[in-house]
C-alpha cells in the first residue's frame, strides 16, 4: 500500500445562499500518496477550489474528515503552513507588492522561528531557478514566470510534505508554463513532495499528474491513473471534457461540443447529476444515484458508461 | 479583395515603438489566427484596427484598409459609424465589456439602433432575435436580465450576439474563450464558426492557445516582439514551422514526453530590443547574420523572418 499523506473521507462543504443551500463538496473521498501528483479537474463550479480551501482549513466541513499526516486539519490550523504549501494562480495577487522578494520568501521561516534563514533563502532561490541578485527586487520588477518561481519558493520554505497548486500555470504563457511545469517535476523528484494539482487545463494535467480525479457538481465522477483515464475515459463527462480540449493533432478540426452548462447548484438533483447534459442517459439515471464501479486502477460513477476505446 | 488589410503598421507609445511593421490581411469568410505570447503586440494590433488604441498610443506609419476604406485617414466621428458596424470586436472578459447597469436586451438594441437606425422598438425585437441566434436559453427573459444574472458562458454569447448584430464584415476576437472552461470554449468556438459561415465574416482570432488556433484558423500569423515572424496556412505552421520561435512554442505544448521543451529566457522589453533579430538572444541557431534584422523570407511552406531560411528555397 502506498503511504497516504492526505486522506479526505466523505467530505461535505455547504454554503447557505439566498434560495437554498449549495453543497459545493458533496461526499468526496480520496487519498494523496507520498511523492505523487494528484490532479483534480472539472469545470468552474464543480467544487474543486472549495475542496482545496477545506483542505487548508479555510472552509469548515459539514461532515466527513480531512486528515493530514494522521491529524485532522481542523484541529491544528496554526501548524498547517508547515504541512501544506500553497501556490495560487496569480503570483501577482498572492505576493505583497510592497515586500521585496527576499522578505516574501523568508516570511514563513521567520514566523516559524526557523534557524539559518539566510542559508535556507539561498537554497530555496537556487532550487526554483532564481538568481539571488533578484532578492531585493519588488514583485512588479519580475516577469510572470519569475514571480511564480518566488511563489513556489515561498510554498516550499517550510518543506511541507504537501503542496497545493491551484491553477499555477493558468496565468502564464506557453513557453513560461513549460518552464514552471518542468520545475515542479524536478522539485518533486528531489524532495518526494506530494502535489495536489487543481486545474481545468487538461493538457497540463495530462503532463504532470500521476492520478486524476474528475469532479462534477461537488461529486467525484471518475478517478484513476491519468494515462488510463485520458486514453479510455469511461464516464461520459470525462470523455466530453477530454474531447473538448483543442490539441495540435486536430488541425482545422473543431473540438467536440458538450451542450449545456452546469445546472444551478441550488437544485437538489436526484439520481445522476450529469444526466441533463449526458448523451448516454438511461431511465435509471433519473432516480438512482450511480454507485461506484471499479475497473483496473480506476473508479467511475455511471449507470451507462461510454464504450471502451480500442 | 481582402476584407481587412493591414500594411506595415507601426504603433508607438512615446518614443517606444511597440508594433514594428505589422502586415496582415484576411479574406471574407476566412479565419486568421494571430498567435503570440503576452506583450507581443497581438491585442494592440486588434485595437489599432478598431482605432481604439489606449491613450498615448499613436499610429506612426502604415495603413489599415477595411474593404478598401482607409481607416487611418478618417475622422473619429466617421470611425464611430464603422466601429461596431462593419468591424466589430469580442474581448476576453465579457463581464468588463458589458454595462453592469443596463439590461442585456437594451445593450444589444442600442448597438443595432445606432448602426441601422431602425427605431428603438424594432431594435429590441431584433436584439431578442439575435439572442436566439446565439442560443441563449429563453431569449425574451434573458433580454430583461442584467449581466451579473448570466453565467460566464451566457455572457460571452451575449457579446457575440452584440458583435454580430450589425452583420460586420470583419470580426476581431481577442482571446474570446480564455476565461472559459474547455467545454464552454468548445461551445463558443463552434458558435463563432457557425455565425461566421452564415454571414461570410472575416475573423481575426487572437489567442495564445496554440490548440485553439490549430482547430479554428485557416491561416496563422505568429507574433514576436511587435512583428509577424512567421505566417502561413494553419496546417503548415503547426506541422512544419520554419521559425525557431514557432518551433519552440509548439514544442512547449505538453505532450507525451517526460520533460517539456522550454524556450530559454524571456521575450525582450520593447525599450531594450536587441539589434537585429529580436529572437536571436534566445535562439539556439543564432549566427553572425542575425545582427541584421530579417524580413519575411520564403521557407519551405511558410514565410518566416529568419536568416536560416535564406537559400532553403533557392
Write a structural description.
The complex is a heterodimer of chains A (310) and B (314). Chain A is built from eleven helices and twelve strands. Chain A has an eight-stranded mixed sheet, with helices on both faces. Chain A has a four-stranded antiparallel sheet with strand order 2-1-4-5. In chain A, a hairpin with a 2-residue loop joins strand 1 and strand 2. With 314 residues, chain B is α/β, with parallel strands linked by helices. Chain B contains eleven helices and twelve strands. Chain B has an eight-stranded mixed sheet with strand order 6-7-8-3-9-10-12-11, sandwiched between helices. A four-stranded antiparallel sheet of chain B has the order 2-1-4-5, with helices on one face. Chains A and B meet through helix 7 and helix 8 of A and helix 7, helix 8, helix 9, helix 10 and helix 11 of B.
Question: Features of this protein?
Answer:
heterodimer; A: 310 residues; Rossmann fold; 8-stranded mixed β-sheet; 4-stranded antiparallel β-sheet; 12 strands; globular; B: 314 residues; alpha/beta; 11 helices
Going by CATH, the homologous superfamily of the largest domain in chain B would be P-loop containing nucleotide triphosphate hydrolases
Strand order of the largest sheet of chain A: 6-7-8-3-9-10-12-11
Biggest β-sheet strands, sense, barrel of chain B: 8 strands, mixed
Oligomer: heterodimer
Strand proportion of chain A, as a percent range, falls in: 15-25%
Can you identify the CATH class of the largest domain in chain B? Alpha Beta
CATH superfamily heading of chain A: P-loop containing nucleotide triphosphate hydrolases
Which pair of protein chains has the largest interface, and what are the residue counts?
A-B, 41 and 43 residues
Average pLDDT of chain B: 92
Distance between the termini of chain B: 30 Å
Low-confidence stretches of chain A: none
Q: What spatial form of chain A do the alpha-carbon principal axes imply?
A: globular
Residue fraction in strands of chain B: 15-25%
Q: Can you write the helix and strand succession of chain A as a string?
A: EEEHEEHEHHHHEHEHEEHHHEE
